[in-house]
Amino acid sequence: MQLRGQARATGWILPVICLVPLRGWAGSSHRARLAPEGIREGVRSDPGGPDHQQLGPLADWWQGLCYLWDQYLGEQLQGFSEQPGDDDLSWNPRCGHVPLRFCEWQLPHRQIQWRQLNLLAHTSQENALPGIPEGMRGRGLVTTVYSRRLPMVLANIARLRANGCKLPIQVWHDDELPVEECTTLGLWSVECRSLRNLLPRESMRGYQLSLPSIVFSEFEQILFFSSDVFFAGNICDMFDSPEFEEYGYVLWPELWESGMVELGSEEARYYADSTHPEHVFWDLFNVLHNSSNPQHRRATDTQLVLLDKRRHWDVLNLALLFCTDPPEKSRQFYFRGHSYGAMNAEKDSHKWALLALNRPFYLVERGGTVGSLEFVADLPHFSPCGLVIYGPPSYGGQLLAAAIGKEDGLYRGLACFDEARVALTYSAFGEHCVPRTVPHALNAADLDACASKAPAEVAPMVEDLEYLLYHAAESLGTRLSSVFKPRFECS
């Protein structure tokens, strides 16, 4: 890789401590006719922010930092004889998918790494972390996508515009979208932005791309959304919520928390491993685990993230650091590509950057799954079809979004786009409630305490999306079956 920032970086010292407009679509009977002119009306299609040249110094800085870190770690690795191979997929409660001895060996070096970044973020010396590039301003929505996910994004944008959100939207990719698809996005006043030449590493893929898209977007206040999330209403109102105004950082929970392991949840053991007090991150960032604090005991997700970059520039760049592991298994610590390491991909990146820097943030309290009741051998089971994502108290706790059809037969199944399949919700954090991503048995207590009628917004949302997804895929020249993949296939 040609390292543009290498020459300047050598002075550093590591301390040894859119869919084609759907003519005539009217959506559900209660929806107004959606016309392309109505969607584009009042939407700022060209925010006029910094271009790649203006972003260059920040990109150079990050590439230089990764280059120096590789040199430093490579020298240290010469004294460690038990480097893991690419076929080592072991898991342990201390370090997740990083082998225990290799993880413990890395601990002091990773402490040096993140503390060095924190130092460079709060100094005026020559090699300091560059500030927010000139031209960053305003509010906007950001997502990352590849071609197969594009119909989901475009269907979502159609509903978002119909619900009154006129903020600009950016779709970021690593040169994965052809010109024709970017042109289609432009028809809907959506910017198509490439991360090529901006990434700290050319090898960054998959889950490693969400943080760079946030860092390099010109928006000062950003709502990041995953490409498989569908908005129930005008989510742009969240920018004016008192929770965001007070903290400048709003996160949403994953389905699991540490206490669910004792209730028999293997998914909580696996996906919420960093919430357990024995996990390496508590030592790495010198944070004392407090089981009574929901921000400590609950895992977070990146289906939605709302943040103010100017208020939390240092936090955001520390979160980006967690996404910069090289592709080799022998150099992994946090995560790489679509593989987990000590961190469950980028889901925990924002939370741990905030905890490490002792920065207050707001964590939404509610979460859960949406699905239906079915009977297996005459016993009631809850069959999940997706996630439900709620707003904070100021939003009335109403549904903001849902990830429907996320796995074949569970989340990513087309059968989930049916009112009957999304009639109930299962609470993530009710007493004795243990959500799962597979059908699970319900006893009488579960039915009373955990299961309830789905919010009213769910049914019209899936009705609209079922139609929109088919036509979005058709307009892009693809089949919807290619969007919703067989179960267990990697994203």
Q: What attributes characterize this protein structure?
A:
491 residues; alpha+beta; Spore Coat Polysaccharide Biosynthesis Protein SpsA, Chain A; seven-stranded mixed sheet; globular
Number of helices: 15
Query: Which strand order do you get reading across the main beta sheet?
Result: 3-2-1-4-7-6-10
pLDDT averaged residue by residue: 84
Question: Major beta sheet, specifics?
Answer: 7 strands, mixed
Number of domains: 2
The CATH topology of the largest domain, please? Spore Coat Polysaccharide Biosynthesis Protein SpsA, Chain A
Overall CATH architecture of the largest domain: Alpha-Beta Complex
Bulk shape: globular
Class by SSE composition: alpha+beta
State the low-pLDDT regions, or none.
1-48, 407-412, 487-491
> What is the β-strand count?
16
Strand content: 15-25%
Distance between the termini: 26 Å
Measured as a percent range, the helix fraction is 25-40%
CATH class category name of the largest domain: Alpha Beta
Radius of gyration: 22 Å
Protein name: Protein xylosyltransferase
Main location: membrane
Subcellular location: Endomembrane system; Golgi apparatus membrane; Membrane
Family: Belongs to the MNN1/MNT family.
